[in-house]
Design a protein that fits this description.
By secondary structure, the chain is an alpha/beta fold. Helices cover 46% and strands 11% of the residues. The protein has ten helices and seven strands. It binds zinc ion (ZN). The site of zinc ion (ZN) has 7 residues, from helix 5.
């Protein structure tokens, strides 16, 4: 499964969904990270530091964070998706141009699942990134995207005032096993981290993971609002079931393309993946059956 993380600045991907990225990577998913702006150029020029060196350092941090999250195989794809828009001035670029860039990204990397910023974030680049992703992923026949999740970035999302839509998560990913990797990735961005009690401190990141986890009975979690309008089908009341249904649909599509399942089986499968009452367990059973089928038929 192809997973694309679209973040405004290098560090947003790790802060927002580092634990979830590590889970996808460990599950063998093909994960790419697209960074829109450099995260450096809006800062005052310092006489003692060369700007080119600052760019290089931030790129190096992005690479090290990707390695910590297990994206070794995909880090080059990530670099290819570096959009280089003006930092903290993305509003100076016409939205249509950003959308076109993203459409190009999706053509070369047809992701099924996307993680990006929340539309009600305080940071202007974060909000524009969200808007551009939603525009680039508007529903079209044959589009690859099945689900879009919005992440929160400490020190930005929670600081938005009530003139912006609130962050209300309805999808939680257990990151108990990958929180360490997230913190390791954030070590790569030590320059961007602040001492506690700043919200972008290691302690606060851990506290947020604990709180999001405790909200759903887990030790640590990352929380996302899911934009299900794009799916419109499947068991929307149970995000985990829907997630499994999306997986089943994607696996089925691939088997069908490869001529490994009949048109009839494929149709039945598509019906199941769109069934609004299918449980998570049933969707899981379908995936198991598909994988058995895939193994049995060989390549
Ligand atoms: Zn950012």
């Amino acid at each position: 499964m192809k997973v694309l993380v679209v973040a405004a600045h290098p560090d947003d991907e790790a802060l927002g969904c580092g634990g979830t990225i590590a889970r996808h990577a460990a599950a063998g998913d093909d994960v790419a990270v697209a960074i829109m702006a450099d995260g450096v150029s809006s800062r005052p020029i310092r006489s003692d530091v060369d700007r080119a060196a600052e760019f290089a350092a931030r790129r190096e941090a992005l690479k090290n964070a990707a390695n910590a999250l297990g994206l070794h195989r995909h880090v080059h794809a990530s670099w290819g998706l570096d959009l280089r828009l003006p930092d903290n001035r993305m509003d100076s670029v016409d939205l249509i141009d950003i959308v076109k860039e993203l459409e190009g990204v999706l053509q070369s990397f047809p992701a099924e699942i996307i993680y990006t910023h929340h539309g009600g974030d305080l940071n202007i680049d974060h909000r524009i990134t969200h808007q551009a992703v939603m525009t680039a992923c508007r529903p079209m026949p044959g589009a690859s995207v099945k689900a879009i999740y919005a992440f929160e970035v400490p020190s930005s999302t929670e600081w938005a005032s009530d003139s912006l839509p609130p962050f209300r998560p309805n999808h939680f990913v257990d990151i108990s096993a990958t929180l360490d990797k997230k913190l390791e990735a954030l070590q790569a961005y030590a320059e961007e981290m602040r001492p506690f009690p700043h919200p972008r401190s290691f302690e606060a990141v851990q506290a947020l993971a604990a709180w999001r986890g405790a909200s759903v009975g887990l030790k640590a979690a990352e929380a996302f609002p899911m934009y299900i309008g794009l799916l419109g089908k499947g068991n929307a009341s149970q995000p985990e079931a829907l997630h499994q249904q999306v997986n089943a649909g994607v696996i089925g599509m691939k088997l069908h393309e490869a001529g490994k399942i009949s048109d009839e089986t494929h149709t039945t499968l598509l019906e199941a993946s769109n069934n609004p009452e299918l449980s998570k367990r049933k969707a899981g059973d379908i995936i198991t059956q598909l994988k058995e089928l895939e193994a049995k038929r060989g390549s």
